[in-house]
């Protein structure tokens, strides 16, 4: 895993010169030793090219500890409508997010919270695709943080155990690793679950 972090650090340094807003230069600093951020977002639809963020949760991790008391949870007011198919997943309706933050303020708060730390998540690619699109006007480049996908870690774990026919659903991952489950599609719960999976697989 250290090789992955080293790669991202080299890539971050090469990209920092293209930063659109020097206010966020700290994202390219060396991350604090053995600290991570577990991240999850709920979206207005399932198309990363159009989705807006409705809620964000992030939890700081240090060593083998999940610092749940040091978490960020934000509600965001979208500019457009929420796809009914997404409402069926996360339960956030238009009226539920009317008191939410403006996306610009939410993104600034998120960047300040995560800093240069590596990001952990379950199917993190979708969240980062939306975040990257929304952050492009602010940063000018993609979010530089290293990212760790817990479903990939689980797959590697199962292959090492000679069980390559892997079910990557979160329910199966939690059951296999003897981890507790929590109500889903609450971003704080989902970030917490991803953090627990990471720590269990890291050993």
UniProtKB/TrEMBL annotation:
<protein>
    <submittedName>
        <fullName>3'-5' exonuclease</fullName>
    </submittedName>
</protein>
<feature type="domain" description="Exonuclease">
    <location>
        <begin position="35"/>
        <end position="203"/>
    </location>
</feature>
<dbReference type="InterPro" id="IPR013520">
    <property type="entry name" value="Ribonucl_H"/>
</dbReference>
<keyword id="KW-0269">Exonuclease</keyword>
<dbReference type="InterPro" id="IPR036397">
    <property type="entry name" value="RNaseH_sf"/>
</dbReference>
<dbReference type="Pfam" id="PF00929">
    <property type="entry name" value="RNase_T"/>
</dbReference>
<dbReference type="InterPro" id="IPR012337">
    <property type="entry name" value="RNaseH-like_sf"/>
</dbReference>
<keyword id="KW-0378">Hydrolase</keyword>
<keyword id="KW-0540">Nuclease</keyword>
<dbReference type="GO" id="GO:0004527">
    <property type="term" value="F:exonuclease activity"/>
</dbReference>
